[in-house]
Amino acid sequence: MKNKIKKSIFGMLALLLLISCQQEELRVRFPASMPVFDSITVAEDAIMYGDSISLSLGVSDPLTPLSTLEIKVVVNDEIITSEIIRTKGNSAAYAKKYRVPFVAHMPEGAEVEVHVSSINIEGTKNDTVIFNTIASRPSIPTIYMVTASSTVELKLIDAPNHIYEATGLTFGNEVSFRLVTKVDRFKKADWKNPENIAFGWVNGGLGLVYPVFEGTVVKSVTGEMITLSDPTLVGFNKFTLDLFNFTIEGDGDKLVPATSMDVSTFGTVELSSTDNLNVTTKENWKTGQMYLGKGTVMTISGMTNLANSLTPDFFDVKSATTAEFLGETGIYTVYYLPGLNYLWVEQPTAVYPDALWLCGVGFGPHATPFKKSSSWNWNTPLEYKYCRKVSPGVYEAVMYVEHVIDAAATEPWRLTFNAKFFHQRGWGGEEDARTYTMPNSLLTAPTTSDQGNYAGTADLATVPGVYRFTINTTTKTSTFVKIN
């Protein structure tokens, strides 16, 4: 049987080879020849970046029909545009303008190279390069940062490197603007001035933008406003523009970590929380943003009984009115629920490896009277737990845990402890408990159907209380220790 299969394959290959040879023999062959450029010019000998060059050419091959024309425009060893044109017959003429953009890394006085290749249908190629044009950077002695309410002049402080700077400013820690080279008498962008060069946010970086006219009226501007934001600053007092690399940076005085927290000054917002029994409750929460510093001792007011109201993984209570912050220095969203007299902190956009998040059922705040509140949801801090990063790869969560086993319940899983660590606030990247060494007899990762959740065991059902749950993603180990 094997020999028959081999013979069949060899037979098919031989047939294909025969057909190919016959087609090759039947194809019309042309004498050996090479395309010739009868004329080829770039009209401009000098341009400014942002202008165009004008290419015109004529090519012919009297013996062999032409096939394709390949064109590349190169500046500073970078291809800025390229195209392939089909050509037919024994001669062709072509003319087109190519824009040479003003973008990052464009040097002063660079040659604009036009690489042209003509290929005939036999595959013979003729290459040529035209060096006729020198490109210069536009002269920008000064540039203006135009916001919705003010205009600031950035002065050229390093001409060889095209660096501009404005100092002594008093902006907030977020500012949106465009950069223009011409302003009108009201110190606004002069969009009608043809000499105006404007910059905005294009494809996630600094780039040229242009006005869109409807008649003589400017209806819009291409691109987006440039927005710089740094919540760790008191405000921006300096901007530096690099027009060679097309970058802009802001700087300012750093915030000093808060030394006091008065929850009564927070804003009030109505939030809905769903508990493990699927009961949803609307409550008024107090919330605000604060710059909190690791190791900073704060005076806390507007709430009582700090030891019962501040989670031990983020706060070390020092006295009746003071506590040391244990988290990494940064901007935090602070939530306070007056009805529970409990306070949480989190960085809502933090992701692994800067943070882990715990979601599931069977846990709640460490405060007395103890009560479970988690529910496999992400609506409020009652439903999930933001874990503190203790060290690289190590995260911890302190919480009340209660595991109840009741097979007769309508939905027994709602009474159990069952949770998973996630890489963000929400569904997606997660840690699979089946890849971790179980900390003790209280937890298990029992089946594939649990999808890698940490689940309580019968032993955990006998010891409800406050636990410190620690996970080490580097060593793939975890600890689960009862602290109250």
Question: What report would you give on this structure?
Answer:
By secondary structure, the chain is mainly beta. It folds into 3 domains: 36-136, Immunoglobulin-like (Sandwich), CATH 2.60.40.770; 142-251, Immunoglobulin-like (Sandwich); 260-482, Immunoglobulin-like. Helices cover 6% and strands 46% of the residues. The chain contains 2 helices and 36 strands. It has helices at 2-26, 306-309; strands at 36-42, 46-48, 52-60, 66-75, 78-86, 91-99, 110-120, 125-136, 142-146, 151-158, 163-167, 174-180, 198-202, 205-209, 211-214, 217-221, 226-229, 238-242, 247-251, 260-262, 267-274, 280-292, 297-301, 315-317, 322-325, 330-337, 342-346, 356-361, 363-364, 384-391, 394-401, 418-422, 443-444, 454-456, 465-472, 477-482. Strands 9, 10, 11, 12, 13, 14, 17, 18 and 19 form a 9-stranded antiparallel sheet that branches. Strands 28, 29, 30, 31, 32, 33, 34, 35 and 36 form a 9-stranded antiparallel sheet that branches. A hairpin with a 4-residue loop joins strand 26 and strand 27 (342-346). It is elongated. The termini are far apart. The model is unreliable at 1-7 and 17-24 (pLDDT under 50).
Write the layout of secondary structure elements.
Elements: H1 2-26, E1 36-42, E2 46-48, E3 52-60, E4 66-75, E5 78-86, E6 91-99, E7 110-120, E8 125-136, E9 142-146, E10 151-158, E11 163-167, E12 174-180, E13 198-202, E14 205-209, E15 211-214, E16 217-221, E17 226-229, E18 238-242, E19 247-251, E20 260-262, E21 267-274, E22 280-292, E23 297-301, H2 306-309, E24 315-317, E25 322-325, E26 330-337, E27 342-346, E28 356-361, E29 363-364, E30 384-391, E31 394-401, E32 418-422, E33 443-444, E34 454-456, E35 465-472, E36 477-482
Parallel strand pairs: 2-8, 20-23
Antiparallel strand pairs: 1-3, 3-6, 4-5, 4-7, 7-8, 9-10, 9-12, 10-11, 11-18, 12-13, 12-17, 13-14, 15-16, 18-19, 21-22, 22-26, 23-25, 24-25, 26-27, 28-30, 28-32, 29-31, 30-31, 31-35, 32-34, 33-34, 35-36
